[in-house]
Write a structure and sequence with these properties.
The protein has 1 helix and 4 strands. With 103 residues, it is mainly beta. It has one domain. Bound molecules: zinc ion (ZN) (2 copies). One zinc ion (ZN) binds at residues 11-12, 14-15, 35, 80, 82-83, 85.
Length: 103
Protein backbone atom coordinates (compact mmCIF):
# COMPACT_ATOMS: atom_id res chain seq x y z
CA UNK A 1 0.00 0.00 0.00
CA UNK A 2 1.21 3.46 -0.80
CA UNK A 3 1.07 6.23 1.68
CA UNK A 4 1.45 9.91 1.09
CA UNK A 5 3.85 11.35 3.62
CA UNK A 6 4.77 14.91 4.36
CA UNK A 7 6.97 16.91 6.63
CA UNK A 8 7.57 20.58 7.24
CA UNK A 9 10.99 21.89 6.31
CA UNK A 10 12.66 25.28 6.27
CA UNK A 11 14.22 26.71 3.15
CA UNK A 12 16.87 29.37 2.81
CA UNK A 13 16.14 32.26 0.47
CA UNK A 14 18.13 30.73 -2.38
CA UNK A 15 16.11 27.53 -2.30
CA UNK A 16 12.84 29.37 -1.86
CA UNK A 17 13.49 31.57 -4.89
CA UNK A 18 14.58 28.63 -7.01
CA UNK A 19 11.46 26.69 -6.06
CA UNK A 20 9.26 29.71 -6.78
CA UNK A 21 10.78 29.79 -10.26
CA UNK A 22 9.97 26.13 -10.73
CA UNK A 23 13.54 25.17 -11.45
CA UNK A 24 15.58 22.28 -10.19
CA UNK A 25 19.35 21.99 -10.13
CA UNK A 26 20.63 20.49 -13.36
CA UNK A 27 24.11 19.65 -12.16
CA UNK A 28 24.15 18.69 -8.48
CA UNK A 29 27.62 19.08 -7.05
CA UNK A 30 28.27 17.83 -3.52
CA UNK A 31 31.31 20.09 -3.22
CA UNK A 32 29.20 23.15 -3.66
CA UNK A 33 25.68 22.65 -2.34
CA UNK A 34 23.21 24.02 -4.81
CA UNK A 35 19.78 25.22 -3.83
CA UNK A 36 17.31 22.33 -3.62
CA UNK A 37 20.04 19.71 -4.14
CA UNK A 38 18.62 17.69 -1.23
CA UNK A 39 15.24 17.29 -2.86
CA UNK A 40 15.12 13.82 -4.38
CA UNK A 41 13.51 12.83 -7.68
CA UNK A 42 10.48 11.25 -5.97
CA UNK A 43 9.83 14.21 -3.72
CA UNK A 44 7.68 17.24 -4.21
CA UNK A 45 7.91 20.57 -2.52
CA UNK A 46 5.09 22.97 -1.84
CA UNK A 47 5.53 26.45 -0.46
CA UNK A 48 4.26 27.23 3.00
CA UNK A 49 3.30 24.95 5.84
CA UNK A 50 0.15 22.95 6.42
CA UNK A 51 -2.53 24.43 8.63
CA UNK A 52 -1.79 21.88 11.34
CA UNK A 53 1.77 23.16 11.61
CA UNK A 54 0.72 26.72 12.34
CA UNK A 55 1.24 27.82 15.89
CA UNK A 56 -1.03 30.83 15.47
CA UNK A 57 -4.21 28.79 15.62
CA UNK A 58 -5.12 28.95 11.95
CA UNK A 59 -7.03 25.76 11.19
CA UNK A 60 -7.19 25.99 7.45
CA UNK A 61 -10.96 25.59 7.54
CA UNK A 62 -11.79 29.23 7.07
CA UNK A 63 -10.92 31.08 3.91
CA UNK A 64 -9.87 34.00 6.02
CA UNK A 65 -6.31 33.59 6.94
CA UNK A 66 -4.88 35.64 9.77
CA UNK A 67 -1.69 37.54 9.22
CA UNK A 68 0.91 35.39 10.86
CA UNK A 69 4.63 34.90 10.95
CA UNK A 70 4.60 31.14 11.25
CA UNK A 71 5.95 30.59 7.75
CA UNK A 72 8.79 33.04 7.87
CA UNK A 73 11.75 33.56 10.15
CA UNK A 74 13.82 36.70 9.95
CA UNK A 75 16.86 34.98 11.30
CA UNK A 76 16.32 31.26 11.44
CA UNK A 77 18.99 28.86 12.53
CA UNK A 78 17.28 25.82 11.09
CA UNK A 79 19.45 23.96 8.65
CA UNK A 80 18.03 24.53 5.18
CA UNK A 81 16.05 21.46 4.10
CA UNK A 82 16.73 22.17 0.45
CA UNK A 83 20.50 22.57 0.30
CA UNK A 84 21.68 21.81 3.84
CA UNK A 85 23.28 25.15 4.54
CA UNK A 86 23.83 25.91 8.21
CA UNK A 87 24.16 29.62 7.63
CA UNK A 88 21.65 31.44 9.78
CA UNK A 89 19.41 33.76 7.84
CA UNK A 90 15.95 34.21 6.49
CA UNK A 91 14.00 30.95 6.37
CA UNK A 92 10.75 30.14 4.65
CA UNK A 93 8.49 27.25 5.54
CA UNK A 94 7.79 24.60 2.95
CA UNK A 95 6.27 21.16 2.92
CA UNK A 96 8.04 18.16 1.52
CA UNK A 97 5.92 15.30 0.12
CA UNK A 98 6.81 11.79 -0.81
CA UNK A 99 5.16 8.42 -1.18
CA UNK A 100 6.15 5.48 0.96
CA UNK A 101 5.45 1.84 0.22
CA UNK A 102 3.77 -0.06 3.01
CA UNK A 103 2.69 -3.59 3.57
ZN1 LIG B 1 0.26 30.91 11.35
ZN1 LIG C 1 18.86 26.23 0.87
Amino acid sequence: MRRREHTAIWLCVDCMVLHANGELPTDPNPEEPEPLCLIGPGEQLTAGMLAEEHECGWTGWSAERPECDCERQEFGRHRCGGCGTDLAGERHAATLWWTSEEG
